[in-house]
Amino acid sequence: MKTAYEYRAHHPNVAPLRRMRANLIIGDGGAPSRSSIASALKRCGVELASKGYDFTVIVGGDGTFFDNALQHRDAPLLFVRKGAASGAGSSMRHGFTACIGLRDLPAMLRRISSGSAAVINEPILELRYDGDTYRSIGDFFVERGAVKQAVRYAISIVDGSSRFDSSCISNGFIVTTPMGSTGYYSYIDVLNGREPRKISGIGVAHILPTRIVDRLNGRRVKPMVRRVFSTKARVVVRMQRDVRQYMYGASGVRSGIPIEVGKPMSFRISEESVRVFS
Q1: How far is CA 106 from CA 42, 45, 62, 222, 244, in A?
Q2: Which residues pair with 135 in a beta bridge?
C-alpha cells in the first residue's frame, strides 16, 4: 500500500488521500490512554491498523521512541510526546526529526495527508561486543559503577585514510547517531547554556574527563571532549580498568550490560535506517 505522501508525490494533480491507516505504540509512565489517542486520530481521519498501515505513531518519551523505532521501521515513524508541548525535555527537540506534542498532532496529520511532511532516513548505530550485536537509533554510553575510581579506556577510530586514537580517564564515554546527538552527547552545551545542534556523523564524547590524550595518524593533537566522524568511521573501544562499568542504550534492553576489561566494543553505522517524519 502506498502511503499518502507517496501517492501525492506520484500523483501531484490528484487530491491527497483523506483516509489514512496508522499503527499506534504508546509507552508506559503516564502516557495518555490508547483510547484517547485513538479517538484523536479518528477525528483526524486516521484509522488504527495492526498491518497494512501507512505509518506508525509512537507516543511517549525518548526511551519509548528509541526502544520501539527499530521494531517498527517497516513504515515511517511519527514521534509524539506524551505532554501537550512539543519536544520539551527531549533529546530530539533540537534536531530535524518531528517530535510533536498532542496539541500539534492534528496539524501534523494534515501535513502527512497532503504530502507536505518530509520523511528522512535516520541511521542506525550498531555495536558488536562479546559475540552479540546491539542496535540503537540514539546513543550508546558506558559509565562506571558505584566505585570511586574513574573509568580508563582507549578509543581507536578509522575514518577513511585517517586513524584517530584517544586515551582517557573519565566517568565514561558516549557514542551517538545524529538523532541522539542532541541528548547526552550535548551535555556540555546544556551546562553552558548553549543550544545543542544535531551532528551529521558518528559522535564520540568523554563524560567529565580528567585526562585526555588524542593522536591523529600517530601525532599528538589538541585534546577535545567530543568529536564527530563520518558515517563510514569504525570505532573500537577497550576498557583498561575495571570499575564495574556498564553499557546502556541498546534498543529493547532496559538494564545495563556489564563490559569487561580488554574486550573490544566495535561501533559502526548500519547499512539500514529508519524513516521518520520531519
Answers
A1: 10, 10, 21, 49, 47
A2: 126
The per-residue pLDDT for range 163-184, each reduced to its tens digit, is 999 999 999 999 999 999 999 9
Sort 160 into a burial class: Cβ within 10 Å, 0-12 / 13-18 / 19+: exposed
Q: How far is CA 24 from the centre of its chain?
A: 19
- Give the 3-state secondary structure of 146-167: CCCCCEEEEEEEEECCEEEEEE
How far is it, in rounded angstroms, from Cα 91 to Cα 162? 30
Catalogue all structural domains in the chain, each as residue range(s) with its CATH number: 4-117 (3.40.50), 124-271 (2.60.200.30)
Q: Which DSSP symbol is given to 94?
A: T
Q: Which of 87, 86, 24, 85 is nearest to 59 (CA)?
A: 24
CA distances from 73 to 23, 50, 77, 84, 145 (A): 11, 14, 7, 25, 34
Beta-ladder partners of 170: 151
3-state class (DSSP) for residue 91: coil
The rounded distance, in Å, linking the Cα atoms of 111 and 71 is: 25
pLDDT tens figures, 27-86: 876 657 788 888 888 888 899 999 999 999 999 888 888 888 998 989 999 998 876 544
**Euclidean distance between CA atoms 17 and 44, whole angstroms:** 12
- Pairing of β 20-26 and β 55-60: parallel
Q: Helix or strand or coil: residue 183?
A: coil
With both helix axes pointing from N to C terminus, report the angle between 105-114 and 34-43 in degrees, rounded to the nearest 10: 50
